[in-house]
Specification:
Elements: E1 9-14, H1 18-29, E2 34-40, H2 43-53, E3 57-61, H3 69-79, E4 84-88, H4 93-99, E5 104-107, H5 115-130, E6 159-165, H6 169-177, E7 186-191, H7 198-208, E8 212-215, E9 226-229, E10 235-240, E11 246-251, H8 263-273, E12 277-282, H9 291-299, E13 303-307, H10 317-323, E14 329-331, H11 336-346
Parallel strand pairs: 1-2, 1-3, 3-4, 4-5, 6-7, 6-12, 7-9, 8-9, 12-13, 13-14
Antiparallel strand pairs: 10-11
Length: 348
Amino acid sequence: MPMNNNRKIRVLVVDDSMLARKLIMEGLSKYPNIEIVGYAINAMDAKRKLAQLNPDVMTCDVQMPGMSGIELLKELIPENPLPVVLVSSLNLRVFDALHAGAVDFVRKPDGSQSPEAFIQSLAQKVVVAANSKVRKPKVSVDTPVMPAAKLGLGGASQIVIGLGASTGGTEATLEVLKRLPEDIPGMVIVQHMPVGFTGMYAERLNRLCAMEVREAKNGDEVKRGLALLAPADYQCRIQRTPAGGYFLRVMSGEKVSGHRPSVDALFMSMAEQVRCQMIGIIMTGMGADGAEGLLAMRRKGAFTIGQDQKSSVVYGMPGVAYKIGAVCEQASCENISNVLLRYLKSKC
């Protein structure tokens, strides 16, 4: 349920490091809309205090002695779907924790960012989490899903797909991609994520999906059977070649719509550069990044899909896109792949 804007967000801080707890508690306490109601030094301590303190949001370290943050989530979320923001070092296990039901994550300070930037990011994610819908995991992350059969698009068929997501998007994007065939048209994905994690996320998608998935590099060709993920802290735009193909410009640049990478930056470049059939997909996320870009794509004849409210962790980005008329068709997270494949097969 959405938070009452007149009430402070009650936060329980869970971390085995005294220094980390002190940083988080003192930092978040400076925000007038956040109240620290307590802390826990490990998962067992957290389980005891959750019932006593009844927080609105919990921040949780992923790696703790004894029961890990992931194991705590696996016990907690099915019975008590509390919004959880992970505080993680650069570790692949954060994606297992997101699969277990955490809403979002921030990277622990390690010299790559200031403590102030860390707290600002964490505070923003706590506010988003308080207004989010907690997703209960359905199956193990490694449970295989049979992808669709090959599309068998003709040699002359050229289609470009763009997909953008933010909060809740790591699992939502996986839910879509793992149901798609290996010969899917070239895809470019923007997922808001801290620096250092996009390469690991691309590897995870590559392992679990039929098509090839990798972190994008400047100059990468957009081609069938390949999904390219925009690297954190870089803008990713599509450029047309003189011969009619497409490649990526991956550069630092200014933030667009408050983000780098930005979904709007990708979608606007598609609207400007792509001359073949194009598809835009906008998924769960806070704010409005991608909505205007998707509208520009639709005005150029693109087929556009928006995630529906019921299946979105945060119905911000897809909600704004739908409201301004950028979305041709809404679908649940689980059904977006079917909508996409139906459209693709109509073009075969």
